[in-house]
Write a structure and sequence with these properties.
The protein is of the alpha/beta class. It contains 34 helices and 19 strands.
Amino acid sequence: MIHIMDLNQRKLTKDEWNSIEIPVSANEKRIIDLITRGYHNVAIRQNKTMSLLSYLKISHSEALENFVFMKYIEPKVSIMSNKYGFKFDKVETKKCSIKKADQIRFSNTDKQLLTEKTELFEFVLLDLMEKLYKYKSKNSDKWLRYHYTIKILSKYNVEASNGVLLALVNRLSSINDKSVDITKLVKMGETIIERNEDLMKYADEELYDHQKQLFTICKARVPKLIQYIAPTGTGKTMSPLGLSEKHRVIFVCAARHVGLALAKAAISGHKKVAFAFGCQDAEDIRLHYFAAKDYTVNRRSGGIWKVDNTVGDKVEIMICDIKSYLPAMYYMLAFNKKEDIILYWDEPTITMDYKEHEFHPIIQRNWQENQIPNVVLSSATLPQPHEMQPTNADFCARFLDAEVHTIVSHDCKKTIPLIEKDGYVAMPHFLSREYDDILAVSKQCRQNRTLLRYIDLGEAIRFITNKSVRNSVRNERYSMTQNFACVEDVTMSQIKTYYIDVLANIVPEKWGDVFEAVSVERKRHHTSNIHVVTSDAHTMTDGPTIFLAEDVGKVARFCLQQSDIPQAVSRDIMKAIHYNTVINGKVSVLQKTYEDGTREDEGKEKKLADGRVNPEMRRVMTKINELNSCVKSVELDSQFIPNSARHLKRFDISEETNGTPFMCDISETVVEEIMMIDDIEDSWKMLLLMGVGVFAQHASVRYSEVMKSLAQQQKLFIIIASSDYIYGTNYQFCHGYISKDLGHMSQEKCIQAMGRVGRNNLQQHYSLRFRDNDLITKLFREEKDRPEVRNMELLFNTC
């Protein structure tokens, strides 16, 4: 059975063209610049946090550094020193001699510093120091959190940060290290790492390790096949921005959303981009204005009007769908040497979980006729390196002296717990009472380290610090003190890796007792996992949720039923919707009449702008405006809108929630726009009023575009979609549901589905909630017969 996908190989719509022109945020632009500059210097590090000197815009010197310390920092340190009994060396006045002009500048900014000082790096460190010594003086273990934070922050690459303060911080940290109980520090892992906002708020921005490896490998002037494996949401899709600094890139994507996201970033980074979507041949390729070489100028605006799309020698990144790869390849080869081009194939495993698919012959032909000697296969779920041998051998046979590289990365900066259908957190150590099964699970985690992000940090800590567990490990090598030698060793990655090591090294005969001991401490995460838009809505915090299901319509109808909107309310809303539909039908007819009546006018654009149309058409436009003014407002009582104040009160949600319940934010303009669409079911419109978007194969392209826009802007409370439809998108979700009707999903596709959650840069409250526990078990067991492996061996091969 072929499932409905958003993998249509068609040309870009007008809305899609417009979407890529919207500038990215300042934060995104900074990351784009980092990636492009990072190609030339993979060790690049930058930090957006301002120091005192960078805030004051004064060039660094030793005298100024001393002056800043003495004027702004030393008074606070002196107070702390006297209060808490630590010593520090005061700066000598003679070392602080600065020019009169600089002294005046300092005086002029003193008032501003009083209001903004908490965001300046030195004041952040001082605030942390104050809290550290406050709690330490009270013999409270809370001091460890601030000690840990200071140790990490002091190593960040903040421009022109005060060296005198940093030297003092490092000296005091070394003294405080002697008082650290590593076991206590590990036990506090959730607090000091996962719930520590300061670590990410002030963190350095740098390339991921996998990007560093990719850029380094691609600089070699030899044919190469790179298997690029890294978790979703860790920058793989943006890596072509760096590669395009010295190479021409053909970016192939099955899911068009991904290509559009790259295009938007590339255009914001002033890259020269072309598009090959739904192409039969090279004549269908379109250039973005930045990439245009030959064009005519619009006399009125002075801007580019008509582009000659046949001249593409300026193109740096060609973005295409699977169907259009060969036309795109020949187009790029017409202007570039093949050795200078990289074929960057995003998520090549899409559709590989199906025995047969319409894309399969296209994929095989693309591989067989490919002439580009530099290929990157980028995915979170490529087969293991030994499983790729047939493809590797085929590539090396076709390209002389070719090299094969495998980049495998795992990101453990976030925890995204898996929640069972009964509300318990799923963990490897709860999967079986048989220790042989546990050994198989631990092996799977070591081989597929992407799974580490789905191991709950708090549960892992509770396991490794459990007395029964600690008394049951094989030998001292797996003790906590052996694996965490210093404060800096206590990281999320290290704790989770240690958890897997301990799991694999329990004395087998003791596992039964261990299992019983840890099961007694097991805690429930949620009361329920099914009442999505009603009593469980408050557990969807911090951002939108995605509900993945095979039967999207069934889930949508269930949500509408669960909302329990009174028939009278539904009837009134439906009447308004039907009324608006009639109005919309009349407007559509008149709109066509108006367009037909003005089509032949010479200088139509200027006439329309000046309002100079014939009287009959003016009357038509007047009637259109009158009808539009008759459209009725459609509004749903807020008690039926998940996580509104009235909704929370309706379900008696008064207790403190773990995070901020997330609510939709849909403007009246968008509601009116959706209500005027006449080729979608009324039920979808009702769901929109609740903040529920349905991603299905609608006949209405307009509805789909509006839903995509709302999803991109994180305006919807929840999106219901098939596992294929939203495959590979860059939308950011904080929570995800995986329906029981997806129990047949392959292991790799399940990981792809899970990758939709936790894609942003913040450590918020995340969760993945399963309606079928068997799918969780499948994740942590080795699959012997994987469809993706079989299909890649067959399709990525010329034999």
